[in-house]
């Protein structure tokens, strides 16, 4: 009696073998240069709306085929960025395309178009079935000429998270990516903010990461200097020789000298370069020497330091204006350009920078011109840093309070009723 035949596995179809091969091998990453080349997009919904801007930016000649589109996609068609055929997909639409995006709500149309793309050897992305597609769209981001594209297979959220982390690191300078080929040197006057290194602007931090030379103020965010690569030359502007009077001229000369030597130079300043930072003097010196520079605004300590101490410089029903004044010279000094009598008549907030050692004379002058002696006042020392402290007083008591509490520069002085608003820190 014959033995029963062993059951056999059904033969693997070509499609199954192809699917298994796709499972075994990772996608090959490549950048497509689509400028002037035909791209076909099927479907005008949310998927197309998200993908089209990048295709437009790549210079592709885009034909979109769909009976209806979102308002944003329609606006692209009206602007001439894409050609919109108001109909459904038909066999032959993929012909001549270098790349296709299939994103209709019709599964049969998607399958048919995908099969056509396969026959014509057109790379095709499918929004409804990634496994059936011949191409995948990576999570993409851009920062200063760098394109980051991330693929993690079936986990698009992880792709986006990795993309975001890399792009953010490039933008804020925390991810150092030095140029290996020649690049144009630059000079930048960068406002570093009030002291906390996290409060420098994204652009400022990126330029700092690309610098060859950094000329730094003592009031700049010093912690950022520790993050610089070893090859970066750091010049402490507070220690530049020639004495106090000539210090600014020496800084100007250093900027010009290093710029003309072909180095990328960052002048790192506290606060904002143009708020008592002498940034315009440096910009003028560079311009006179024929050196172009970029000015990167910074968060001014005149606003940020009071805010960090819980003081709003304006507040509804309390102050409708604020005035920022330099207190580096006394009110009776012939060099003073401040109209203290006019300031005493204002009802808003008065913010004084560089005025700790002159605050006694300033308070006396304001009171002499009519400001109430009991006007509240706060001194915020080392604002936004770990050493921040707030000392409260009035115009009548501030001189003695500064002596008794040993308040030292740098400190921002806020005068006005807003001092009484909000929590005291």
Automatic annotation (TrEMBL):
<dbReference type="InterPro" id="IPR014777">
    <property type="entry name" value="4pyrrole_Mease_sub1"/>
</dbReference>
<comment type="similarity">
    <text>Belongs to the precorrin methyltransferase family.</text>
</comment>
<keyword id="KW-0949">S-adenosyl-L-methionine</keyword>
<dbReference type="GO" id="GO:0051287">
    <property type="term" value="F:NAD binding"/>
</dbReference>
<dbReference type="GO" id="GO:0019354">
    <property type="term" value="P:siroheme biosynthetic process"/>
</dbReference>
<feature type="region of interest" description="Disordered">
    <location>
        <begin position="1"/>
        <end position="23"/>
    </location>
</feature>
<dbReference type="GO" id="GO:0051266">
    <property type="term" value="F:sirohydrochlorin ferrochelatase activity"/>
</dbReference>
<dbReference type="InterPro" id="IPR050161">
    <property type="entry name" value="Siro_Cobalamin_biosynth"/>
</dbReference>
<feature type="compositionally biased region" description="Low complexity">
    <location>
        <begin position="1"/>
        <end position="15"/>
    </location>
</feature>
<dbReference type="GO" id="GO:0032259">
    <property type="term" value="P:methylation"/>
</dbReference>
<protein>
    <recommendedName>
        <fullName>uroporphyrinogen-III C-methyltransferase</fullName>
        <ecNumber>2.1.1.107</ecNumber>
    </recommendedName>
</protein>
<dbReference type="InterPro" id="IPR036291">
    <property type="entry name" value="NAD(P)-bd_dom_sf"/>
</dbReference>
<dbReference type="InterPro" id="IPR012409">
    <property type="entry name" value="Sirohaem_synth"/>
</dbReference>
<feature type="active site" description="Proton acceptor">
    <location>
        <position position="217"/>
    </location>
</feature>
<dbReference type="Pfam" id="PF00590">
    <property type="entry name" value="TP_methylase"/>
</dbReference>
<dbReference type="InterPro" id="IPR003043">
    <property type="entry name" value="Uropor_MeTrfase_CS"/>
</dbReference>
<dbReference type="InterPro" id="IPR000878">
    <property type="entry name" value="4pyrrol_Mease"/>
</dbReference>
<keyword id="KW-0489">Methyltransferase</keyword>
<dbReference type="InterPro" id="IPR014776">
    <property type="entry name" value="4pyrrole_Mease_sub2"/>
</dbReference>
<feature type="domain" description="Tetrapyrrole methylase">
    <location>
        <begin position="187"/>
        <end position="398"/>
    </location>
</feature>
<keyword id="KW-0808">Transferase</keyword>
<keyword id="KW-0627">Porphyrin biosynthesis</keyword>
<dbReference type="GO" id="GO:0043115">
    <property type="term" value="F:precorrin-2 dehydrogenase activity"/>
</dbReference>
<feature type="active site" description="Proton donor">
    <location>
        <position position="239"/>
    </location>
</feature>
<dbReference type="InterPro" id="IPR035996">
    <property type="entry name" value="4pyrrol_Methylase_sf"/>
</dbReference>
<dbReference type="GO" id="GO:0009236">
    <property type="term" value="P:cobalamin biosynthetic process"/>
</dbReference>
<dbReference type="InterPro" id="IPR006366">
    <property type="entry name" value="CobA/CysG_C"/>
</dbReference>
<dbReference type="Pfam" id="PF13241">
    <property type="entry name" value="NAD_binding_7"/>
</dbReference>
<dbReference type="GO" id="GO:0004851">
    <property type="term" value="F:uroporphyrin-III C-methyltransferase activity"/>
</dbReference>
